[in-house]
Structure formats: C-alpha cells, structure tokens
Write a structure and sequence with these properties.
Layout (H helix, E strand, L loop, with lengths): L1 E5 L5 H4 L7 E3 L8 E4 L15 E4 L9 H6 L3 E3 L6 H17 L1 H9 L8 H8 L12 E5 L3 H12 L3 E5 L5 H6 L5 E2 L3 H7 L2 E4 L13 H5 L5 E5 L8 H10 L2 E6 L12 E3 L8 H21 L19 E8 L4 H11 L3 E10 L2 E9 L5 H7 L4 E7 L1
Helix pairs in contact: 3-6
The structure holds nicotinamide-adenine-dinucleotide (NAD) and (2R)-2-hydroxypentanedioic acid (2HG).
Function: Catalyzes the reversible oxidation of 3-phospho-D-glycerate to 3-phosphonooxypyruvate, the first step of the phosphorylated L-serine biosynthesis pathway. Also catalyzes the reversible oxidation of 2-hydroxyglutarate to 2-oxoglutarate.
Protein name: D-3-phosphoglycerate dehydrogenase
EC number: 1.1.1.399, 1.1.1.95
Length: 388
C-alpha cells in the first residue's frame, strides 16, 4: 500500500482518485510515501526516508523547502494553471474595488442602520465620499505573465484598459496566449512610470521578495493602486503603509493580510481567497493526485519544480528511477552498475533540470535487493526508487 498524508483541506476530486486497494491516508507524515499540501508551511518539518514526493495543490511553492527536498530526492510537484481562472476573477474584482471605493462605501452604509426612513436621504448626502474613477482608459501594469498574469492582462483589455506586461522569463507557450494589444514593458521602471494600477503575479523568491518597496513606489505615478494576489512578502509592509499615508498609493488590495495592514484606510485585505472556488480546488486536487499516482506507480514526473519532466512508457519487467546530481559520467556509471548485475536494459531516459537529473531505466529480469544499494552508493546519486 502507498501511504498518503494530506496537509490542509484537499478536495475529494483529488483524494477520490487514489484507488483504495492501493492507497491509504495516514495521520503521521513520518509514515507517508507522499504528501498533498496547499498553503501549510513545511519548512520546519522533518522528512522521513519513506517520503518520495510532495504535491502542492496550487501554484506557489514558497511553503515547501525545495532545496532540502532536492537533497533528499523528494520530488516536489505543483499544479500550474489549475487555479488561474479563479485568481483572475478575484483580481478583476480587486481592480473594480480599488477604483470605486465599494468596500468603505459598504462599511459606511452599515453605520446607517437604525435611521429608518432617513436612510435613503443619508445615502444620497454621503455617497460623494465614495466616488471613484472608471477603469476604461486607465493603464494597468501586470508584473509576471504566467498562468494568472496572462489571463488578467487579456481580461483587463475588455475593461478598456491599456495594459503593460513585464516578464523577463516569459515562456513561448504563454506568449502565444497573450493579447497582442498588451504592451511589452522592457523594465519594471516602464511599469512604474506608466501605470495607474499595478498587479503582481510573480512567485515569491529571494529575487522578488520586497520588490514593491519605498524605491519602487517612489518611481510610481501618484495615487497608484497596487494589487497583490501573489504573496504578501513581495510588498514591504512598512513602505506601502507610508506610501498610503502620503497619498502616493491610493489603494492596496492584498490577498495576504498581516496585522499591520488590517483596518488601515486604503487597504483592502482579503483572506487569501484567490484560489478559493470549488472549481479551482477540484482542478488543483485532481491534478496533484494524478501527478502523485503516475510518479508513485511508474516513476513518471510531470509538473515538478525541482526535477525534470520524464515520461516513459513501461517496458521490461522492472523499472528503476534514479535521482542524481546533474554532473558528468552519471549515466554510464548507472548503466554499468545495472549491466554488472546481469540485467539487460530495455529502455532508458535521462533528463536534467538545473543541479539535478533523473534517469529512468526499464530492465529485463528481476532486480536484486543489492542493486538499488549499489546504485545509491554511486557518488552523486541521491535516491533510487524501484517500480515493479
Ligand atoms: N492568491 C492566491 O490564492 C494565489 C493562487 C495562485 C497563485 N498565487 C501566487 O501567484 C503566483 C503566480 O501564479 P501563476 O499561476 O501565474 O504562476 P506562473 O508560474 O504561471 O507564473 C509566474 C510568472 O512570473 C514570472 N516571473 C518570475 N520572476 C519574475 C520577475 N522577477 N519579474 C517578472 N516576472 C517574473 C515567470 O516567468 C512566470 O511567467 C504564484 O507563484 C503564487 O505565489 C496566488
Ligand atoms: O490553496 C489555496 O487556497 C491557495 C493557493 C495559492 O496561494 C497558490 O499559490 O496556488
């Protein structure tokens, strides 16, 4: 039996994919072959040698210690694009809310409770405090043109906005999906100087942490509206609060509230609801489950953030999945060790991603108990998994 541990609430659309005759859900991570997780932080967790894979039912993997996983040969998956539409829809709501003062207006309207027949008159008298501009004709800067950024950029065009997009690592596939009317910004300065609204759709990494700070805000237009549906730490809290106070920023919409941001004028703090739709939770859970099943049963890897994609049709009698450092001479040492064990290699594939590589070998004949140990002893081999 394969043992699965779920952290967070994972939709049954995913958990039901595991065949009950082959999979069991366990309480303790120490017993697990694989983990399904959403936003729970795994940075302080110990991983037992049984743990082979972690599937993030979502996009951001900053809650998972990727380097530690790679060193231990644990494959980390995510579910690219599976929640992008849900986030896009809330970003569009965020754009409207940031412009039209709907949230403070609703809060003010509640204070009129108990005024009886006067409510209508009071509404008309007080509403001018909550007027806000239209989106049509305004400029939106989208930072990060991945699954979500592209959808937001394209949809904003339908509001009549002029859209600038910035992404130095834009993939060819994504570029095909981007509206031709999106202006390609060559630098962040171009976004800051030109945009009335700026929306962030980049992963949180050491490079992007704090990218919105006093310096970048200084380069922005006065009264800019900032939307952050990506990760809280992309924006320096102290600096955005100062910019709200000075009027440099007129609204900050964030899906990642912290104590300092709550109940501040100009801040719209949403409790991380970007991906909280039944459709997106189902999509993410389903994709994460399918990734784990194909890896645990066949050693195939799709949508991993730390190892290459490898898909090999099963052949031979057994399969070995060897996770190793991306250094010279690994393939020949692996195949020599297998040949020395008297086994014929039926099929083999090898792919690399940054510092790590993955070799999948289908062999004819039965694999002895010693062979995985011999392969594991090769300098640079991190982990050997056996698939029967
Ligand atoms: N609020 C939510 O519930 C929610 C849901 C999904 C994703 N997210 C967050 O949004 C982020 C983006 O999600 P996605 O699905 O679009 O991911 P994605 O991987 O499809 O897109 C990220 C894009 O950012 C680009 N990028 C990376 N570094 C950059 C930089 N320094 N400057 C500009 N562009 C850069 C990449 O090239 C990529 O195109 C996730 O990493 C996650 O943190 C939040
Ligand atoms: O699981 C969630 O609800 C949020 C997921 C989101 O932050 C992501 O990065 O995909």
């Amino acid at each position: 039996m394969y043992q699965i541990k779920t952290l967070n609430k994972i939709s049954p659309a995913g958990t039901d994919r595991f065949d009950k005759s082959k999979y069991a859900f366990v309480e303790e991570i120490a017993d697990a072959d694989a983990v399904m997780v959403r936003s729970a932080s795994m940075h302080e967790m110990e991983f037992s040698p049984s743990l082979k894979a972690i599937a993030r039912a979502g996009a951001g993997v900053n809650n998972i210690p990727i380097d530690k996983c790679s060193e231990q040969g644990i494959v980390v998956f995510n579910t690219p694009g599976a929640n992008a539409n849900a986030v896009k829809e809330l970003v569009l709501a965020g754009l409207l809310m940031s412009a039209r003062k709907v949230v403070p207006g609703i809060e003010w309207a509640k204070t009129l409770k108990g005024q009886g027949a006067e409510v209508g008159k009071l509404v008309e008298k007080g509403k001018s405090a909550f007027a806000g501009p239209e989106l049509m004709g305004k400029t939106l800067g989208v930072i990060g043109l991945g699954a979500i950024g592209v959808l937001v950029a394209n949809a904003a065009r339908h509001f009549g906005m002029k859209v600038y997009g910035y992404d130095p690592y834009l993939s060819v596939d994504t570029a095909w999906g981007l509206s031709r009317e999106t202006k390609h910004a060559n630098s962040l300065s171009e976004i800051y100087q030109n945009c009335d609204f700026i929306t962030l759709h980049v992963p949180l990494t050491p490079d992007t942490k704090g990218m919105i700070n006093s310096e970048s805000l200084e380069a922005c237009k006065n009264g800019v509206r900032i939307l952050n549906f990506a990760r809280g730490d992309l924006v320096n809290t102290e600096d955005i609060l100062a910019a709200l106070d000075s009027g440099k920023v007129s609204c900050y919409v964030t899906d990642f509230p912290n104590d300092e941001l709550l109940d501040v004028d100009g801040v719209i703090a949403i409790p991380h609801l970007g991906a909280s739709t039944p459709e997106s939770e189902d999509n993410c859970a389903r994709m994460a489950a399918m990734e784990l099943i194909d890896f645990l049963e066949n050693g195939n890897i799709k949508n991993s953030v730390n190892l290459p994609n490898v898909k090999l049709e099963r052949s031979g009698t057994c399969r070995l999945g060897v996770i190793h450092k991306n250094i010279p001479n690994m393939l020949s040492q692996i195949s020599q060790t297998i040949s020395a064990a008297g086994l014929n290699i039926d099929n083999l594939t090898n792919k690399s991603k940054k510092d790590y590589a993955y070799t999948v070998v289908d062999v004819d004949g039965l694999i002895s108990k010693e062979l995985p140990e011999q392969l594991g002893a090769i300098d640079g081999v991190v982990r050997v998994n056996l698939y029967r």
